[in-house]
Design goal:
The structure holds two protein chains of two kinds. Chain A has nine helices and no strands. Chain A is mainly alpha-helical. The chains are: A mainly alpha, B mainly alpha.
Chain lengths: 245, 70
Protein backbone atom coordinates (compact mmCIF):
# COMPACT_ATOMS: atom_id res chain seq x y z
CA UNK A 1 0.00 0.00 0.00
CA UNK A 2 2.72 2.42 1.07
CA UNK A 3 4.81 1.34 -1.86
CA UNK A 4 1.94 1.90 -4.25
CA UNK A 5 1.31 5.31 -2.75
CA UNK A 6 4.92 6.26 -3.16
CA UNK A 7 5.03 5.23 -6.78
CA UNK A 8 1.85 7.15 -7.53
CA UNK A 9 3.23 10.27 -5.90
CA UNK A 10 6.19 10.27 -8.27
CA UNK A 11 5.57 13.15 -10.67
CA UNK A 12 6.02 10.96 -13.74
CA UNK A 13 3.45 8.32 -12.80
CA UNK A 14 1.03 10.98 -11.62
CA UNK A 15 1.37 12.69 -14.99
CA UNK A 16 0.53 9.49 -16.84
CA UNK A 17 -2.40 8.45 -14.63
CA UNK A 18 -3.98 11.91 -14.57
CA UNK A 19 -3.69 12.09 -18.36
CA UNK A 20 -5.85 8.99 -18.64
CA UNK A 21 -8.44 10.14 -16.08
CA UNK A 22 -8.78 13.77 -17.15
CA UNK A 23 -11.04 13.37 -20.22
CA UNK A 24 -13.58 11.34 -18.23
CA UNK A 25 -13.70 13.83 -15.37
CA UNK A 26 -13.97 16.63 -17.92
CA UNK A 27 -16.96 15.07 -19.65
CA UNK A 28 -18.70 14.40 -16.32
CA UNK A 29 -18.02 17.96 -15.13
CA UNK A 30 -19.46 19.57 -18.27
CA UNK A 31 -22.46 17.23 -18.14
CA UNK A 32 -23.26 18.01 -14.50
CA UNK A 33 -22.76 21.76 -14.90
CA UNK A 34 -24.91 22.01 -18.05
CA UNK A 35 -27.73 19.86 -16.64
CA UNK A 36 -27.62 21.68 -13.30
CA UNK A 37 -27.55 25.17 -14.83
CA UNK A 38 -30.37 24.53 -17.31
CA UNK A 39 -32.45 22.89 -14.58
CA UNK A 40 -31.81 25.68 -12.11
CA UNK A 41 -32.35 28.48 -14.62
CA UNK A 42 -35.37 27.24 -16.53
CA UNK A 43 -37.11 24.38 -14.76
CA UNK A 44 -36.73 24.86 -11.01
CA UNK A 45 -39.59 26.82 -9.44
CA UNK A 46 -39.01 30.47 -8.41
CA UNK A 47 -38.78 31.17 -4.68
CA UNK A 48 -42.09 32.29 -3.21
CA UNK A 49 -40.43 35.31 -1.55
CA UNK A 50 -37.40 36.11 -3.71
CA UNK A 51 -38.84 35.22 -7.11
CA UNK A 52 -36.35 34.44 -9.84
CA UNK A 53 -33.34 36.00 -8.09
CA UNK A 54 -33.23 32.79 -6.04
CA UNK A 55 -31.83 31.08 -9.16
CA UNK A 56 -28.51 32.68 -8.21
CA UNK A 57 -28.43 30.02 -5.50
CA UNK A 58 -27.45 27.36 -8.06
CA UNK A 59 -24.09 29.05 -8.64
CA UNK A 60 -23.57 30.91 -5.36
CA UNK A 61 -24.01 27.94 -3.01
CA UNK A 62 -21.77 25.51 -4.98
CA UNK A 63 -19.11 28.23 -5.34
CA UNK A 64 -19.17 28.91 -1.59
CA UNK A 65 -19.03 25.22 -0.67
CA UNK A 66 -16.17 24.64 -3.10
CA UNK A 67 -14.32 27.73 -1.87
CA UNK A 68 -14.13 26.23 1.62
CA UNK A 69 -13.49 22.65 0.45
CA UNK A 70 -10.70 23.72 -1.87
CA UNK A 71 -9.02 25.45 1.07
CA UNK A 72 -9.37 22.24 3.07
CA UNK A 73 -7.78 20.26 0.21
CA UNK A 74 -4.98 22.79 -0.11
CA UNK A 75 -4.32 22.61 3.64
CA UNK A 76 -4.32 18.79 3.49
CA UNK A 77 -1.67 18.94 0.78
CA UNK A 78 0.28 21.33 3.02
CA UNK A 79 0.13 18.86 5.92
CA UNK A 80 1.24 15.96 3.71
CA UNK A 81 4.12 18.05 2.41
CA UNK A 82 5.28 19.13 5.88
CA UNK A 83 5.08 15.60 7.33
CA UNK A 84 6.30 13.41 4.47
CA UNK A 85 8.10 15.92 2.22
CA UNK A 86 6.32 14.59 -0.85
CA UNK A 87 7.12 16.79 -3.82
CA UNK A 88 3.73 16.20 -5.42
CA UNK A 89 1.98 17.59 -2.31
CA UNK A 90 3.94 20.83 -2.63
CA UNK A 91 2.89 21.07 -6.28
CA UNK A 92 -0.75 20.31 -5.35
CA UNK A 93 -0.69 23.03 -2.68
CA UNK A 94 0.71 25.58 -5.07
CA UNK A 95 -1.79 24.67 -7.80
CA UNK A 96 -4.90 24.73 -5.59
CA UNK A 97 -4.36 28.36 -4.52
CA UNK A 98 -5.26 30.24 -7.73
CA UNK A 99 -8.32 28.06 -8.35
CA UNK A 100 -9.46 28.52 -4.76
CA UNK A 101 -8.91 32.28 -4.95
CA UNK A 102 -10.98 32.63 -8.12
CA UNK A 103 -13.81 30.44 -6.77
CA UNK A 104 -13.89 32.39 -3.48
CA UNK A 105 -14.03 35.62 -5.46
CA UNK A 106 -16.90 34.13 -7.48
CA UNK A 107 -18.75 33.24 -4.26
CA UNK A 108 -18.26 36.81 -2.98
CA UNK A 109 -19.37 38.44 -6.25
CA UNK A 110 -22.44 36.25 -6.80
CA UNK A 111 -23.30 36.79 -3.13
CA UNK A 112 -23.08 40.56 -3.58
CA UNK A 113 -25.23 40.44 -6.73
CA UNK A 114 -27.78 38.27 -4.93
CA UNK A 115 -27.67 40.53 -1.87
CA UNK A 116 -28.70 43.64 -3.81
CA UNK A 117 -32.26 42.58 -4.75
CA UNK A 118 -32.71 40.44 -1.62
CA UNK A 119 -31.22 42.45 1.27
CA UNK A 120 -31.13 45.81 -0.51
CA UNK A 121 -27.35 46.04 -0.23
CA UNK A 122 -24.32 44.62 -2.06
CA UNK A 123 -22.24 44.16 1.06
CA UNK A 124 -22.45 44.13 4.84
CA UNK A 125 -19.51 43.72 7.18
CA UNK A 126 -21.00 40.77 8.99
CA UNK A 127 -19.26 37.61 10.13
CA UNK A 128 -20.12 35.34 7.19
CA UNK A 129 -19.12 37.81 4.50
CA UNK A 130 -16.04 39.07 6.30
CA UNK A 131 -14.70 35.59 7.08
CA UNK A 132 -15.21 34.61 3.42
CA UNK A 133 -13.29 37.73 2.38
CA UNK A 134 -10.50 36.59 4.73
CA UNK A 135 -10.58 33.19 2.99
CA UNK A 136 -9.98 35.00 -0.29
CA UNK A 137 -7.02 36.89 1.23
CA UNK A 138 -5.59 33.61 2.57
CA UNK A 139 -5.56 32.14 -0.94
CA UNK A 140 -4.01 35.34 -2.31
CA UNK A 141 -1.47 35.27 0.55
CA UNK A 142 -0.39 31.74 -0.38
CA UNK A 143 0.11 32.81 -4.02
CA UNK A 144 1.98 35.98 -3.04
CA UNK A 145 4.21 34.27 -0.49
CA UNK A 146 5.15 31.60 -3.02
CA UNK A 147 6.08 34.08 -5.71
CA UNK A 148 7.98 36.30 -3.27
CA UNK A 149 10.46 33.58 -2.33
CA UNK A 150 13.14 32.40 -4.71
CA UNK A 151 14.19 29.23 -2.95
CA UNK A 152 11.68 26.52 -3.81
CA UNK A 153 12.23 24.52 -0.62
CA UNK A 154 11.74 27.35 1.83
CA UNK A 155 8.89 28.79 -0.25
CA UNK A 156 7.18 25.39 -0.09
CA UNK A 157 7.56 25.16 3.69
CA UNK A 158 6.45 28.76 4.31
CA UNK A 159 3.32 28.51 2.17
CA UNK A 160 2.46 25.15 3.74
CA UNK A 161 2.64 26.69 7.22
CA UNK A 162 0.53 29.67 6.15
CA UNK A 163 -2.06 27.37 4.55
CA UNK A 164 -2.28 25.30 7.74
CA UNK A 165 -2.61 28.30 10.05
CA UNK A 166 -5.43 29.63 7.86
CA UNK A 167 -7.52 26.54 8.58
CA UNK A 168 -8.81 28.24 11.76
CA UNK A 169 -10.86 30.46 9.47
CA UNK A 170 -12.95 27.54 8.15
CA UNK A 171 -15.00 26.80 11.31
CA UNK A 172 -15.44 30.56 11.70
CA UNK A 173 -17.05 30.73 8.24
CA UNK A 174 -19.18 27.68 8.94
CA UNK A 175 -20.55 28.74 12.32
CA UNK A 176 -20.55 32.50 11.68
CA UNK A 177 -24.26 32.45 10.87
CA UNK A 178 -25.05 30.79 14.21
CA UNK A 179 -22.60 32.66 16.45
CA UNK A 180 -23.23 36.25 15.34
CA UNK A 181 -26.20 38.25 14.16
CA UNK A 182 -26.13 38.33 10.37
CA UNK A 183 -28.21 38.98 7.28
CA UNK A 184 -26.98 35.73 5.82
CA UNK A 185 -29.32 32.79 6.28
CA UNK A 186 -28.05 29.66 7.97
CA UNK A 187 -27.40 26.47 6.06
CA UNK A 188 -30.50 24.87 4.57
CA UNK A 189 -28.51 21.98 3.20
CA UNK A 190 -26.60 19.37 5.16
CA UNK A 191 -25.32 15.84 4.87
CA UNK A 192 -27.25 14.52 7.84
CA UNK A 193 -30.69 16.11 7.67
CA UNK A 194 -33.49 16.17 5.16
CA UNK A 195 -33.32 19.35 3.06
CA UNK A 196 -35.87 22.01 3.93
CA UNK A 197 -36.48 22.94 0.30
CA UNK A 198 -38.47 20.96 -2.26
CA UNK A 199 -36.76 18.34 -4.43
CA UNK A 200 -37.19 20.48 -7.58
CA UNK A 201 -34.79 22.92 -5.93
CA UNK A 202 -32.29 20.80 -4.04
CA UNK A 203 -31.79 18.27 -6.84
CA UNK A 204 -30.43 20.79 -9.37
CA UNK A 205 -28.44 22.36 -6.52
CA UNK A 206 -26.90 18.99 -5.65
CA UNK A 207 -26.02 18.39 -9.33
CA UNK A 208 -24.37 21.82 -9.49
CA UNK A 209 -22.37 21.10 -6.31
CA UNK A 210 -21.14 17.82 -7.85
CA UNK A 211 -20.37 19.66 -11.11
CA UNK A 212 -18.32 22.29 -9.25
CA UNK A 213 -16.32 19.59 -7.43
CA UNK A 214 -15.64 17.78 -10.72
CA UNK A 215 -14.59 21.09 -12.28
CA UNK A 216 -12.19 21.68 -9.38
CA UNK A 217 -10.50 18.32 -9.86
CA UNK A 218 -10.14 18.88 -13.60
CA UNK A 219 -8.69 22.37 -13.13
CA UNK A 220 -6.45 21.14 -10.30
CA UNK A 221 -5.10 18.18 -12.33
CA UNK A 222 -4.44 20.46 -15.32
CA UNK A 223 -2.45 22.89 -13.20
CA UNK A 224 -0.55 20.11 -11.42
CA UNK A 225 0.36 18.53 -14.76
CA UNK A 226 1.57 21.87 -16.09
CA UNK A 227 3.68 22.46 -12.97
CA UNK A 228 5.16 18.93 -13.15
CA UNK A 229 6.13 19.58 -16.75
CA UNK A 230 7.65 22.91 -15.73
CA UNK A 231 9.73 21.40 -12.91
CA UNK A 232 10.78 18.26 -14.80
CA UNK A 233 11.33 19.77 -18.23
CA UNK A 234 15.02 18.74 -18.24
CA UNK A 235 14.42 15.11 -17.30
CA UNK A 236 14.71 12.13 -19.58
CA UNK A 237 11.06 11.06 -19.31
CA UNK A 238 9.77 14.45 -20.49
CA UNK A 239 12.19 14.35 -23.44
CA UNK A 240 11.12 10.82 -24.36
CA UNK A 241 7.46 11.74 -24.02
CA UNK A 242 7.85 14.67 -26.37
CA UNK A 243 9.84 12.62 -28.88
CA UNK A 244 7.24 9.86 -28.94
CA UNK A 245 4.37 12.24 -29.70
CA UNK B 1 -40.55 24.72 -17.36
CA UNK B 2 -41.28 27.64 -15.09
CA UNK B 3 -41.47 30.29 -17.86
CA UNK B 4 -44.11 30.62 -20.55
CA UNK B 5 -42.03 32.53 -23.12
CA UNK B 6 -38.39 33.10 -24.01
CA UNK B 7 -38.47 36.82 -23.23
CA UNK B 8 -39.92 36.01 -19.82
CA UNK B 9 -36.99 33.62 -19.32
CA UNK B 10 -34.51 36.36 -20.21
CA UNK B 11 -36.20 38.93 -17.95
CA UNK B 12 -36.39 36.63 -14.88
CA UNK B 13 -39.13 38.75 -13.29
CA UNK B 14 -37.27 42.01 -12.73
CA UNK B 15 -34.10 40.16 -11.75
CA UNK B 16 -32.70 39.31 -15.19
CA UNK B 17 -29.59 41.45 -14.85
CA UNK B 18 -28.73 39.97 -11.44
CA UNK B 19 -29.29 36.35 -12.42
CA UNK B 20 -27.57 36.49 -15.80
CA UNK B 21 -24.54 38.42 -14.56
CA UNK B 22 -24.00 35.71 -11.90
CA UNK B 23 -24.14 32.91 -14.46
CA UNK B 24 -21.92 34.91 -16.83
CA UNK B 25 -19.30 35.45 -14.10
CA UNK B 26 -19.42 31.75 -13.24
CA UNK B 27 -18.83 30.79 -16.87
CA UNK B 28 -15.87 33.19 -17.14
CA UNK B 29 -14.23 31.92 -13.92
CA UNK B 30 -14.67 28.23 -14.80
CA UNK B 31 -13.48 28.58 -18.42
CA UNK B 32 -10.44 30.69 -17.44
CA UNK B 33 -9.38 28.07 -14.89
CA UNK B 34 -9.33 25.44 -17.65
CA UNK B 35 -7.82 27.50 -20.48
CA UNK B 36 -5.00 29.11 -18.48
CA UNK B 37 -3.14 25.88 -17.53
CA UNK B 38 -3.69 24.46 -21.04
CA UNK B 39 -2.14 27.59 -22.55
CA UNK B 40 0.86 27.43 -20.17
CA UNK B 41 1.31 23.74 -20.91
CA UNK B 42 1.30 24.31 -24.67
CA UNK B 43 3.86 27.09 -24.33
CA UNK B 44 6.17 24.89 -22.20
CA UNK B 45 6.01 22.06 -24.72
CA UNK B 46 6.65 24.38 -27.66
CA UNK B 47 9.72 25.88 -25.98
CA UNK B 48 11.07 22.45 -25.09
CA UNK B 49 10.56 21.16 -28.64
CA UNK B 50 12.37 24.18 -30.04
CA UNK B 51 15.30 23.65 -27.64
CA UNK B 52 15.46 19.96 -28.56
CA UNK B 53 15.48 20.73 -32.28
CA UNK B 54 18.28 23.21 -31.72
CA UNK B 55 20.34 20.63 -29.84
CA UNK B 56 19.85 18.14 -32.65
CA UNK B 57 20.91 20.65 -35.28
CA UNK B 58 24.04 21.51 -33.30
CA UNK B 59 25.11 17.92 -32.75
CA UNK B 60 24.60 16.99 -36.41
CA UNK B 61 26.31 20.01 -37.93
CA UNK B 62 29.51 18.93 -39.82
CA UNK B 63 32.75 20.07 -38.20
CA UNK B 64 30.97 20.92 -35.03
CA UNK B 65 32.85 19.89 -31.96
CA UNK B 66 30.00 20.77 -29.66
CA UNK B 67 28.72 17.69 -27.96
CA UNK B 68 25.22 17.64 -26.61
CA UNK B 69 24.60 15.02 -24.01
CA UNK B 70 21.48 13.05 -24.63
Amino acid sequence: MWNWFHRLSAPKSFFELSGKLLPWFGILAVLALVVGAVWGLAFAPPDYQQGNSARIMYVHVPASILAQSSYMMMASAALVFLVWRIKLADIALQCAAPIGASITLLALLTGAIWGKPTWGTWWVWDARLTSTLILFFLFVGVIALRSAMDNRDSAGRATAVLALVGVVNLPIIKYSVDWWFTLHQSASFSLTEKPTMPAEMWLPLLIMVIGFYLFFFVAWMLRIRTEILHREIRTQWVRERLLSQ
Amino acid sequence: MSFSSFSEFIQMGEHGLFVWSCYGLTLVVLVMNILRPLQLQRRLIQEKRRAMAQEDALSQAPGSNQQVDK
